[in-house]
Structures are given as C-alpha cells and as structure tokens.
Amino acid sequence: MRILIVGGGTGGTILANQLVRRLKDEIRAKKVRITLLSDSDRHMYQPGLLYVAFGQMAPDQLYRDEASLLESSIKFHVDAVTEFHLDRNQVKTKSGKTHDYDILAIATGARIVPQEVPGMSEGAETFYTEEGAIRMHKRLMEFKGGTVAMVVSIPHKCPVAPVEAMFMLHDFFKMRGIRDKVKLQYKYPVNHVHATANVARWAKPEFDKAGIEYETLFNVREVDPVKKIVYSEEGTECKYDLLIAIPPHRGMEMIEANNLGQGGWIPTDRFKLTMDGHENVYVIGDASNVPVSKTGSAAHFEAEIVAENIASVIKTGVPVREYDGKVYCFIEAGYDRATYNAFDYVNLPELKPPSKAIHWFKVAYNQLYWTTVRGLL
C-alpha cells in the first residue's frame, strides 16, 4: 500500500508521523510505504511570524529541518509536485519524477496574493511572510506618530491574527511611550469586527477600551501608496501614515494550475475529509474548502482524523471517525494577556476573559509546537 503525502507543513507532517505509529507493523512487513513530498527542506512555525513583526522572536526561531521532524521510515523528498493525475493515481514533480500511490493526502496550504489588490504590495506592510514580518518590525521601530491603519481581506490564514495584531500594536506603542501620538484604525470587510460573531462580541469592547477605532464593511479596492490612501469597494477611503494589510489568500498555484479547485481550494467532504469524487484522496488544512478556520490547529485535528481513518481502511477496510470541525486557537490580547477560541461545526466559541496565565501557555506552546508536529502531542 503506497501512501503519498504532498505538503510538509503542519498537516502533512503530523499525518505522516501519526501514520507511522499506527501502521508500524505493516511498515516493518513492507506492506505499507509512506512518502512525503515537499517544496522545501525547512519547516516554518507560521504563527511565529506575528512575533517576529513585533520583535519578540528572531526569524531563525521559526524553522526546523523538516527531515528532523519525521520518523525515519518516512521517505522524504524535497521535490515540488507540479502535476496531479488523479485518474491514474499519479503525481509528477519538478524534477520530472513520477510517484504512484494508492492513497493520496494533499496538504499544500495557502499563499498570499497581495498583487490582486492594486497598490497593496507597494503601499502596505504585512506579517504573513518572513521578509514582510522583518520589514514590518523595522517600520514599527522607526514610526514616530500618526495613523496606523490595518485593512483585512478574507479568506486568510489564522482568522484571529488581525485582532491579535491590533492589541499588540496598542501595547507596542505604549511601551515605546508614543501611544498618545498614534491613531489605530482597523478596517474589516464584513459587518462585524470579526467574521465569527462571538469573537466580534468579545473584541469590540476590548477595542473600545484600548482606543482602537474600527470600521466594518470596508472591502479594499485599491491602495494609493503615494497619497497614502486606501479606497474601499463601498466608496469610502482611509488615509494612513503606516498601512498594515492582511492580504487576500488563495490555495497553492499547483492546485489552481491542475484545476483541482477554484481559487486553489479543493472541494472536500467536511466530515470524511476526502476530495469530492475521489475517495482515495484526502485533503488537510488550508488547501481544502472545508468551512472552518484556516489554522494550524484545524490542520492538526484533521491530520489525526485522516491518519486514524487511513490506518483503519488498511487494517479493516472501513474508516472509523468523522471530522467534527474542531478548532482551538489562542488569541493574544496584547503583550501579556491572551484568551482562546474553541469551537466545532455545532458549538460556537465562548471566549474567556484574557489572562496572563493563558498568554504564558501560548508562549510555551510556541516551543511545544515542534513536539506536536512530530505527532507526540
């Protein structure tokens, strides 16, 4: 049985390691072979980018060698997939190799596409890439006062990140002693300050207490980096001195190029996590169109479900579990307070008051992550 995993991020790495533990006897007997293909030999802890932007983590703390995170029986190749031939149970890679499979798992993630908004790449800072986070920190350190505006496009990875960033901006400028010289503005595209209603109900009074101004129903149409104005689809505008953008996202280019899903999002059964029309193809994390947050925690829980089901299919012929939409996310409420957001398809999040204890648990998890992706937590 040939199991092929495409993508070496959170979901793909956890899945590979979990499968080894569940199928160790079959692997030892050479009845099962697990291969993981990635476009990079490094694994990034993506939530750490926000901390880099605020000078709380160094860029090199974001990375580990992918091979060091994988069980030794996993065949790991740094060779990006360029073609999916699902009708033949094959993929082709950048090097020209063909990989056959019996079971395929796609965990290719998502990418930012700021170029889709005129002027955004030239006029805005972002913390969604290493380069962007480093540049944003430099701009924040140099900032002397004026209007800092954040504009949000959806969908995007880590839906609570814009809210976290606003609270961190508030504390950052307080620590620099210039909060009274800075106007913080937050622009969100739907009619709440967050797409999840319970998060919005919690965040709005917290914004009020911090003196953060907000405007909803602001969908970015264009950024004028010369005049320093953002124009919305609704006909409003926002003047700024420093602009921070949460750019629009798409699935990865090879997903779009192979017509696996509009916008790069693969049509996926929300419970079985199989690709529509392909029972032997599973989709994990940001690559799917499953209606949950695009977060590492969703990828983690999905990977565990898929690992259990693949192992059960191999051992008994039938899967054993369904994904219930479980997501668990920490939410930083500044530099030393945090809360968390836990929900599933049925249960809405009920946020607790932010505390220092939850913040320090989040800080600890920044290190525990490396244990998590090895499938040990």
Question: Radius of gyration in whole Å, from Cα?
Answer: 21 Å
Q: What is the count of β-strands?
A: 22
Strand content: 25-35%
Q: Sketch the major β-sheet.
A: 6 strands, mixed
How would you characterize this protein structure?
With 377 residues, the chain is an alpha/beta fold. The chain has two domains: 2-109 and 252-327, 3-Layer(bba) Sandwich (FAD/NAD(P)-binding domain), CATH 3.50.50; 113-248, 3-Layer(bba) Sandwich (FAD/NAD(P)-binding domain), CATH 3.50.50. Helices cover 31% and strands 25% of the residues. It contains eleven helices and 22 strands. The strands form seven sheets. The chain has a six-stranded mixed β-sheet with strand order 5-2-1-9-20-19, with helices on one face. Helix 1 (10-22) packs parallel to helix 10.
Give the SSE layout:
Elements: E1 2-6, H1 10-22, H2 24-28, E2 33-38, E3 42-44, H3 48-53, E4 63-65, H4 66-69, E5 75-78, E6 81-85, E7 90-93, E8 98-100, E9 103-106, E10 110-112, H5 120-123, H6 130-142, E11 146-152, H7 161-175, E12 182-187, H8 197-210, E13 213-215, E14 220-224, E15 229-232, E16 237-239, E17 242-246, E18 249-251, H9 253-257, E19 274-275, E20 278-283, H10 296-316, E21 327-332, E22 338-343, H11 356-373
Parallel strand pairs: 1-2, 1-9, 2-5, 9-20, 11-12, 11-17, 12-13
Antiparallel strand pairs: 3-4, 6-7, 7-8, 10-18, 14-15, 15-16, 19-20, 21-22
